[in-house]
Specification:
The complex is a heterotrimer. Chain A is α/β, with parallel strands linked by helices. Chain A folds into two domains: about 5-80 and about 160-265, 3-Layer(aba) Sandwich (Rossmann fold), CATH 3.40.50; about 90-155, no CATH class. Helix content of chain A is about 35%, strand content about 25%. Chain A contains nine helices and ten strands. In chain A, the strands form two sheets. Chain A has a six-stranded mixed beta sheet with strand order 6-7-8-3-9-10, sandwiched between helices. Chain A has a four-stranded antiparallel beta sheet with strand order 2-1-4-5, covered by helices on one side. In chain A, a hairpin with a 6-residue loop joins β9 and β10 (about 220-225). The two termini of chain A are about 30 Å apart. Chain B contains eleven helices and no strands. In chain B, α3 packs across α8 and α5 (about 105-115) packs across α6. The model of chain B has no long low-confidence stretch (mean pLDDT about 85). Chain C is an all-alpha fold. Chain C has one domain (about 70-270): MetI-like (MetI-like fold). Chain C has eleven helices and no strands. In chain C, α9 runs parallel beside α10, α9 (about 185-225) packs antiparallel against α11 and α10 (about 230-240) packs antiparallel against α11. In chain C, about 40% of the residues are buried. Mean pLDDT of chain C is about 80; it is low at about 1-25 and about 280-283. The chains are: A alpha/beta, B mainly alpha, C mainly alpha. The interface between B and C is large, with 63 and 71 residues.
Chain lengths: ~270, ~260, ~280
């Protein structure tokens, strides 16, 4: 089995507009090993969403390539699931919660018995077993996002992409959802790539934080997070190491906003 | 209990008053063109006995049903195709908008050129008249499907049929129903017109016959019948729509859609 | 909670948070107007060629050039312009009557919950009645005069406008109305400052719907009843078998329809330039 699950190679993404060419992503390289949990942070408008959508296969690269499981991505590949920020808009309002979670499996051709088991397990894992017959719009925002997560989990992907999934929920719900994602990650052994603008979340959640520069985006810094595996919202965030990471990454993001590029950082690390 | 009675009262009082007024006015002051309401109502079962109903009402409704459902199928299929293809839409948009704005009645003589005066002509007239709102609303509905939903279907690799039946059709259905509702009203109009213009049977034909023969109470009974039919069909439509779009009522109520 | 409420509302499906990048920049996207023009030209060319080549019967579908020629002849004919004027007069009179009646009745009925409830069943019954059902009645009473067609036009257009005005009146914010009562606004101020701006968008939508249905029924009345106008010219062309002329007049009817829609949209934009959103048609 390959040691590299996802490989982004010299990715460049540009758009032609009437005013000229806008380069969103310039020359982005990084790799993910199986089972990793990596976060991507960066200044707003840095193209984090564009990057995620390119990896998801929704946007073709202008140049460079993205390899997943050793195959070049040209369209959304199998074994990959995406959780979008706009949870309310990513759940099908004409289907019940249970059906929403089941539909990708139906499309995949999973036999009924196994499908029902996967759906039940996924809903239980996110704590929504009681809501299988509700409609998404009957649920709160946090619960809707949990449905989206359950749907991704039931799909049994190897790579889970999450695009600022908790940006639009309140702080308490966000804390619960963060812990949920970490727990699912540990239990299922799935690789997670998590985009966020919340620096503290990125440190709390992951083993590795990639800091992006501003447009045209590249990887500014790649920081391994060495914190204990067992994390708790209260204790972990109070560790001195946590504070150091926070300061460092915050400074990097500020430099990114001021236009720092990969080669030009004063003293990194 | 009181609430139910109140609702009932609201439902009946004004119509009862109006009917009473019509009754009194037409009885006290009968004119040739406005015979007493009791006469009209008395004529009703006599005029519209089973023989006449099967000779005229059934064929009318039959043509209406065939034509309406054909228009729905054509309108939705074409609408989906055009909704999904920017190029096809661009090419046909101007023409479609023009056809939609054309009074459908004006097309009747043209259609008669091709199809004479048979049943086919009448069915085609209805279809040609009422397909436009369905078609254009379907296009709008397909285009208005939320991008995030569409991206979700792509990332989960929905197959073509899956996308059609679980994304496009349900997503566009509220708008499709809007078009279908407008189309129903037009279909009834075209049904009546095609029968008044050149026909050998049908409700419209029968009413015109009565008018030609100066059988005024019978004519009025036909007009009332058409009114009742129009009302009944629109009620049935509302029931069907409510069933099919049950999820949409809830969704709209719980989501700020911002217009 | 309120600060995040907006964000969660946005996420739940309202205003998009950030513009989503399109699926890859294609090198050249033909603008919509170019596509439309190509489409129209293609259809006209097709309609020119097919009858000449014999694919369709030239008696039923004359080539575009013949239709254009017939149209041109009409345009040079005084009778055509008179008929056009008659159609527009009928349409305008019908609209005027419907709009005024609907504004009057609509505001009265719409302003009171009781009246709305009491009239609801009647309105819901009368509204779906196809106005063409009244054709024989109209013919008996008014023959082939303008009044005949007006009966049809007014009946249909009135309901479109009326329903919208009532909805607009319903929409008047009861809290705002109570505020005007507390501060003892004069009736004139309440009408002018509260009711009018709320109802206006609905009234304008109603006007647009009424205007379209009015032109449809005007042509219908002229065609079937025989009231003078473009529709009547079409009937005459049909009985005399002048096929290119028929098509030319159908085109004119369509152009009238388009024109009416355009005028209505311009009126809408002119009166509602201040309004944050254009309301969707209710029913």
């Amino acid at each position: 089995m390959s040691e590299i699950l996802l490989s982004v190679e010299h990715l460049r993404k540009a758009y032609s507009t009437p005013k000229g060419v806008t380069e969103v992503i310039h020359n982005l390289d990084f790799q993910l090993a199986p089972g990793e949990f990596a976060c991507i942070v960066g200044p707003s408008g840095a193209g984090k969403t564009t990057l995620l959508r390119s990896i998801a296969g929704l946007l073709p690269p202008s140049s460079g390539q993205i390899r997943f499981e050793d195959r070049v991505i040209t369209q959304p590949p199998a074994d990959m699931a995406v959780v979008f920020q706009e949870y309310g808009r990513s759940l099908f309002p004409w289907m019940t919660v249970g059906r929403n979670v089941a539909q990708p499996l139906i499309e995949k051709g999973v036999p009924k018995a196994e499908r029902e088991r996967l759906v039940a397990d996924a809903l239980e894992a996110v704590g929504l077993s009681a809501n299988a017959n509700s409609y998404p719009w009957q649920l709160s925002g946090g619960m809707q996002q949990r449905v989206a997560i359950a749907r991704a989990v039931a799909y049994e992907p190897r790579l889970l992409l999450m695009d600022e999934p908790f940006a639009a929920v309140d702080a308490q719900t966000r804390a619960d959802l963060e812990d949920l994602v970490r727990e699912l990650w540990k239990r299922l052994g799935v690789t997670v790539l998590f985009v966020t603008h919340d620096i503290e979340s990125s440190i709390y959640l992951s083993q590795r934080v990639l800091v992006l520069s501003d447009r045209p985006t590249e990887v500014l810094a790649d920081i391994p997070i060495e914190l204990p595996e067992q994390r708790s919202q209260l204790e972990t965030r109070m560790l001195p190491e946590f504070g150091e990471y926070r300061a460092r990454i915050y400074e990097l993001v500020q430099q990114a906003k001021r236009g720092a590029r990969t080669g030009s950082l004063p003293t990194v690390r | 209990m009181i609430r139910a009675l109140k609702s009932l009262a609201y439902l009946i009082v004004l119509p009862a008053l109006l009917l009473a007024a019509w009754w009194i006015a037409s009885t006290l002051n009968p004119s040739f063109f406005f015979p007493p309401l009791p006469d009209i109502l008395a004529e009703f079962p006599v005029t519209w006995d089973f023989a006449r109903i099967s000779a005229h009402v059934f064929p009318s409704l039959g043509r209406l049903a065939i034509a309406y459902f054909a228009a729905v199928v054509i309108g939705v299929l074409l609408g989906i195709l055009l909704g999904l293809s920017r190029i096809a839409r661009g090419l046909t948009e101007a023409i479609l908008e023009f056809m939609r704005a054309t009074p459908p009645t004006a097309m009747v003589p043209v259609i008669m050129l091709f199809l004479g005066i048979g049943d086919t002509m009448r069915v085609v007239v209805i279809i040609v008249g009422c397909v436009w709102p369905i078609l254009l609303n379907t296009i709008e509905g397909v285009r208005g499907i939320d991008e995030v939903l569409s991206d979700t279907a792509r990332t989960y690799r929905y197959r073509k049929t899956g996308r059609l039946f679980h994304l496009v059709l349900p997503g566009a259905s509220p708008q499709i129903f809007t078009g279908a509702r407008q189309a129903l009203a037009i279909a009834i109009i075209m049904m009546v017109i095609s029968e008044m213009f050149a026909a050998s049977n049908g409700i419209g034909f029968q009413i015109v016959q009565f008018q030609h023969q100066y059988s005024i109470p019978e004519m009025w009974s036909g007009v009332i019948l058409l009114g009742v039919l129009g009302f009944a069909l629109s009620r049935i439509f509302i029931l069907v729509e409510r069933r099919a779009l049950a999820w949409y009522q809830g969704f709209k109520a719980n989501t700020d859609l911002g217009g | 909670m309120t600060a995040t409420l907006d964000a969660s509302r946005a996420a739940a499906g309202g205003v998009p948070t950030a513009p989503r990048p399109r699926r890859g920049a294609t090198p050249f996207r033909m603008p919509a107007w170019a596509l439309s023009t190509i489409g129209v030209v293609a259809v006209l060319a097709l309609l020119e060629i097919l009858p000449r080549v014999g694919v369709t019967n030239a008696k039923y579908l004359p080539p575009t050039s013949e239709i254009a020629a017939a149209l041109f002849i009409h345009l040079q004919n005084a009778a055509f312009w008179i008929a056009l004027g008659q159609t527009l007069t009928t349409w305008f009179t019908g609209i005027a009557i419907s709009v005024i009646a609907a504004l009057v009745f609509g505001s009265i009925i719409g302003s009171s919950g009781f009246l709305r409830a009491a009239t609801s069943s009647t309105v819901e019954f009368l509204r779906p009645i196809p106005s063409v059902a009244l054709i024989p009645v109209a013919v008996l009473m008014y023959g082939t005069t303008m009044a005949s067609t007006l009966l049809l036009v007014v009946y249909a257009a009135f309901w479109q406008m009326f329903v919208q005005v009532v909805q607009g009146m319903r929409d008047v914010d009861p809290v705002a109305r109570d505020t005007t009562r507390v501060y003892r606004f004069r009736i004139r101020s309440v009408a002018g400052r509260l009711v009018f701006p709320t109802v206006l968008p609905y009234a304008v939508t109603g006007f647009r719907l009424a205007a379209s249905i009015a032109i449809i029924l005007t042509i219908t009345g002229e065609l079937i009843i025989g009231t003078p106008g473009v529709g009547n010219l079409l009937a005459v062309a049909q009985t005399s078998g002048a096929v290119p002329s028929m098509y030319a007049l159908v085109f004119v009817a369509g152009a009238l329809g388009v024109l009416v829609n355009l005028v209505a949209r311009l009126v809408e934009r002119g009166l509602l330039f201040w309004h944050p959103s254009i309301r969707k048609e209710a029913s």
